[in-house]
Amino acid sequence: MLAAAVVAALGAPAALAQTCPAAATCTPGPAGAATGAVTAFNMGILNVTLGSINNTTQGQADGYQDYSCRAPGTTTATTLALGQNYTLAVRTSLNNNETVLAWIDYNNDGAFDPVTEVIMAATPATGTGTAGGLHTATFAAPATARTGVPLRLRIAADYTNSPVPTPCSTPQFSQDEDYAVTLAASTGPPVVAFTTNGITTCSGCVQFTDASQGLPTSWVWSFGDGTASTAQNPSHCYAAAGTYQVQLTVANGNGNAISAATTITYTSTAPAAAACAPATAAYCCLYGVVRVRLGALDNASADGSAGYQDFSCTRRASLAVGTAYPLQVTTGGTLPHDTRAYLDLNNDGAFATSELVGQALGAANPTFSLTLPATTPLGQPLRLRLVTDYAGSDPQPCKAPTNGQVEDYAVVPMARPLATVAAAALPGLAVGPNPTPDGHLRLRLDDPAAAGPYAAEVQNLLGATLLSTALRLAPGTDATLDLGALAPGLYLLRLRDAKGQVAVRRVVRE
Ligand SMILES: [Ca+2]
Ligand SMILES: [Ca+2]
Ligand SMILES: [Ca+2]
């Protein structure tokens, strides 16, 4: 121990300086040894880039390749700074999908720790066509990693249907390659950044995660409500609904940096919590909900592979009561689905049979018509639940889908906008006195063609119906309405004739 410490303190003589990474404790074999000839599948690692590494090679037929021990300045070694983000890009064959993983032997012991030394977790290819076969991952070397010596970078690739590669496994169809990475201490001030688990919260609590580069050693979070934290990754709960500006200040031995403000919105109006959250039992075959459109809401999401998803806090549609809206559900893949939509109209967290608002059995991509009853209380968000599963599955609001998915959204009932009603209808109708001091209104019709029975409703500006009656309009005979029970204010008088045509007048009760 003492001798080793002395050697480390003195440094190794320059002539003996390590120019290659520590020998690997394991070496993957070439693909095909167990399964016979696999060259026809054309898999393999064809190009690797990281820092100054840019190495284009042949694929699987090369077998395991150790490119790590080359002269400095070659395209198979690079120097990176601790704590800074770098992106490793690995291109594999276009012919077959491959899974790629990568590790750096940060402590230079020749072995790859599957947790602390992984820099690319199992990553499928992105891109199509000539951009296909590309695997990327961004990572930052930890403060504890060895600096100043070449460290072994191992990249493992194999067919997606083969077992996920480990640092020591021999691939069935693809290839492993090793490179060299030398780490250097971080020399500049930190670059500040952070993420959250959502900038809109309905619980009031937000998880903040530091994403700064340059290995900061101190953190000061200002949550915008007069409180602060010096934790690296704090969780914070706001006491009152509102919007808050959050800033993070980080520092290391070389300086500090202050983030721009991120706005957090705490909305305390949320649908009642759902009584059940059905998980997908056995996702399969691209079943699920991948897009929902309703009013101004348009939400793309993962299919049933993501299981139950609750979007009811952040994904809301404001809908006017008494108005029909198309609810478009895009189902995953091309197979037919059974889909049902429920709206928790009484906001009790449960979905009664009477709250089924649409269903489509044995169909892909259904569109439902959703109309909120005119009596729906305004402003309170209601939970909209979509359940979808394979055709013949008879999905239910609290039944776990076999292959499909349950997703929740929120619908916010709003007053019917004036623009949607025919204010110019019934030009021959006079309503007075308006304003009315005692609530009595006379309705006088000059147009004989418009004579007949009418349904009359008086609504407040929130769309709630306060008075509903039937009356007959005819020239020479005034109809009367009594608004005497209403509070002073502005109201809408809606008159609907036998054909369903609607006329609206604004009336003021003094
Ligand atoms: Ca290769
Ligand atoms: Ca190691
Ligand atoms: Ca209910």
UniProtKB/TrEMBL annotation:
Keyword annotations from UniProtKB, A to Z: Signal
Superkingdom assignment: Bacteria
PROSITE patterns per record: PKD (PS50093)
Alphabetized SUPFAM superfamilies for the sequence: PKD domain
InterPro entries per UniProt: GEVED, Ig-like_fold, PKD/Chitinase_dom, PKD_dom, PKD_dom_sf
Pfam families, A to Z: GEVED, PKD_4
Keyword Transmembrane helix applies: no
Protein name: PKD domain-containing protein
